[in-house]
Specification:
SH3 type barrels, about 45% strand, about 5% helix
């Protein structure tokens, strides 16, 4: 059911809403057509620390050729991917990454 969780970025207030509700018509009809909010859906995956991964998260990945790459979680052509700093999309495997921030608030240093 985590895949059907959402978080909502309030553009004017520059913070996330605490409102998280499953994808039901009342939820999507209320929030979907508002330009002052950004809706981000949960990928249904957890990072290596057990934290849920959402669209717009910044995750740290480590590959043999790319140590400690910071990538952004995106929805592309029917699936979630991570986009590296080189602009290339890679498969998202939750247990091999760590959420370190999001596109609105930046990287958490704590």
């Amino acid at each position: 059911m985590d895949r059907f969780r959402f978080r909502i970025w309030l553009k004017k207030e520059k913070r996330y809403s605490q409102y998280q509700k499953p994808a039901v018509p009342e939820f999507t009809n209320h929030w979907a057509h508002r330009s002052d909010y950004i809706i981000e859906q949960c990928t249904g995956l957890k990072d290596k620390n057990g934290k849920l991964i959402f669209e717009g998260d910044i995750v740290e990945y480590t590959w043999e050729d790319f140590p400690n790459q910071n990538c952004i979680v995106k929805w592309v052509r029917g699936g979630y991917v991570i986009q590296g700093t080189n602009g290339i999309n890679y498969c998202l495997y939750g247990e091999t990454c760590r959420v370190i921030g999001n596109i609105h608030e930046g990287i958490n240093n704590g």
